[in-house]
Specification:
The protein has about 160 residues and is α+β, with helices and mostly antiparallel strands. About 40% of the residues lie in helices and about 15% in strands. It is globular and about 35 Å long.
């Protein structure tokens, strides 16, 4: 009897803590552990002009999403100005947003345009996106307010 009571209390406590767990904001693309860009360092796209895997040693949280960095300097730069370094469209595929979709991304399919980081589903989609970046960006920027608070499955 006491065993069942203890199990019930333990289950209630676990469920209460589960409700407190921080989850990435709905408009942010993150994995099951709330990590953005598969753990790649978003600042490195700007200062190294290439994707660099981040480390668990250097992290920052933005919009309830965990970003990993390859150095303390990159983490500190992000903390000072996350809007400058965070990928656009919450880290979803820029071409996907232009098509009113929230698609995951390949950290290797990226481009910085006018000081903003844009990611794509893969290199093939990136080629399509690059065929008319201004046009696709205009469409994506128009679509984003309508889809940002919807889940990928709703679209």
């Amino acid at each position: 009897m006491k065993s069942n009571i203890f199990k019930g209390i333990a289950l209630s406590v676990a469920m209460a803590f589960a409700g407190v767990a921080v989850a990435a904001d709905k408009d942010m693309n993150a994995d099951a552990n709330d990590v953005a860009i598969s753990g790649y360092d978003t600042v490195a796209y700007f200062n190294k002009n290439m994707p660099v895997q981040g480390s668990d040693k250097f992290t920052a949280v933005y919009k309830n999403t965990i970003y990993k960095f390859s150095s303390e300097q990159n983490r500190d730069a992000f903390r000072a100005n996350p809007e400058k370094f965070a990928p656009q469209f919450g880290g979803y595929c820029a071409m996907g947003v232009a098509m009113e979709k929230k698609l995951n991304v390949d950290p290797m399919a990226w481009r910085v345009v006018d000081g903003k980081l844009y990611l794509n589903l893969n290199k093939d989609v990136q080629t399509k996106w690059a065929s008319d970046i201004p046009g696709h960006l205009k469409t994506a920027q128009s679509n984003w307010p309508e889809i940002k608070d919807k889940s990928a499955t709703e679209l």
